[in-house]
Amino acid sequence: QLSFAALDVFEEEPLPQDHPLWKMDNVLITSHIAGLTPDFQKKIMTILLNNLKSYLATHNLQTNQVKLSAGY
């Protein structure tokens, strides 16, 4: 059993005003901004540049590659 959940992404966005999650005391809902941290842009640019260099050299990505076999 979960005691608390912080949710940022939903199947339907924006989450409808009458959705039951809005009324739950143990749920924190953010507006799809949970990934925006102070160093977000620096990190995303590092990932982009590493992947671009790797792709140009080997036609493969190095960082944050999706693993469909793992279910995501």
From TrEMBL:
Molecular-function GO terms, alphabetical: NAD binding; oxidoreductase activity
Alphabetic keyword roster: NAD, Oxidoreductase
One Pfam family hit: 2-Hacid_dh_C
Gene3D superfamilies with a match to the protein in the record: NAD(P)-binding Rossmann-like Domain
Domain D-isomer specific 2-hydroxyacid dehydrogenase NAD-binding, residue spans: 2-34
TM segment ranges: none
PANTHER family, sorted: 2-HACID_DH_C DOMAIN-CONTAINING PROTEIN, D-ISOMER SPECIFIC 2-HYDROXYACID DEHYDROGENASE NAD-BINDING DOMAIN-CONTAINING PROTEIN
Protein name: Hydroxyacid dehydrogenase
Species for this entry: Enterococcus faecium
